[in-house]
Amino acid sequence: MSERLTGYEVDEDGVALLQLDRPEARNAINTAMLDELLAHLESASEDDAARVLVISSTDHMGLSAGADVHEQLDEEGMVHRIELFARLYDEITAFPRPTVASCHGSCVGGGAEIAVACDLRVGGSNLRFRFPGAALGIPVGAARLVTLCGLSVAKYLLLTSREVGADEALRWGLVHKVVPAARTEHAALQLAAGVAQSPPDSVARIKSMLHEW
Q1: pTM, full prediction
Q2: CA nearest to 182, candidates 62, 26, 19
Q3: How are beta strands 106-108 and 62-64 bridged, if at all?
Q4: CA-based nearest residue to 154, from 163, 164, 143
Q5: Bridging pattern class, strands 128-130 and 106-108
Q6: Predicted pLDDT of residue 2
Q7: Nearest to 95, CA basis, from 46, 144, 31
Q8: Pick from 89, 93, 22: which is nearest to 56 by CA?
Q9: Nearest to residue 192, comparing CAs of 1, 9, 7?
Q10: For residue 27, which of 64, 92, 127, 175 is within the disulfide window of CB 3.0 to 4.6 Å?
């Protein structure tokens, strides 16, 4: 039996919860997890009962430490995983209904990119936000960061690879509110439930208009 890497469910309020479930590896994202995440996103996008999507993890100590550096891949496998990551960020950004990220603990690399791709973000008091591409010699970074927090802050985060905590993340607009670490997912679900009360077609149209702008 293969290990479960993610979980997905929709509650009676129309809030879909997609969780990364690999706490023993700090929710590091491998190829199998990418496949599961993309499959859940496709299902959720086609499910009219899912009015808002929350992306979280089963461990409040971290959303994700990023790509799994211990996954054994040949060159072809590495290229394939990079393509899956790019597709994942695009699918989250283009998700037809609002998305909320539960940013507790470590949000590093791919985990930070997932958070930035969401429409709304709730930060935990233990948040550690970092884009380590420059430090690792990998010329990648979230272009979406510029529209989120401005060019100056985006340059600072991407060029220095510096880790920022909850207070800075809130001040710079990386998250919309900060709550105690263990309640991050609960707060994200509450925020999503409030959004889900509005007419879904109207909310979806507003999101589409904002993205077109």
Answers
A1: 0.95
A2: 62
A3: parallel
A4: 143
A5: parallel
A6: 54
A7: 46
A8: 22
A9: 9
A10: 64
